[in-house]
Specification:
Blueprint: H1 9-22, H2 26-40, H3 59-68
């Protein structure tokens, strides 16, 4: 996909310097930035699976116990 966007000149100049030091194109830098943004903002649902496996009580039992307190 191609994208057209407005980027201030000072940001383009700073990006050009970073890209020159890294030896990459501006397009590659933008792709990497998008990848990093997506990774930082994607929920880590896999970390929750198996969360209760080491607990002495079943998750449903715990939930019912909490509800009894109400």
């Amino acid at each position: 996909m191609r994208a057209l966007m407005d980027i201030p000149d000072n940001k383009i100049d700073a990006l050009a310097k970073v890209c020159e030091r890294a030896g990459i194109s501006r397009a590659e830098a933008v792709r990497r930035a998008i990848d990093a943004f997506i990774q930082a903002n994607t929920p880590k649902t896999d970390e929750a699976f198996g969360l209760w496996k080491t607990r002495p009580i079943d998750g449903v039992e715990y939930e019912n116990g909490m509800r009894e307190e109400w």
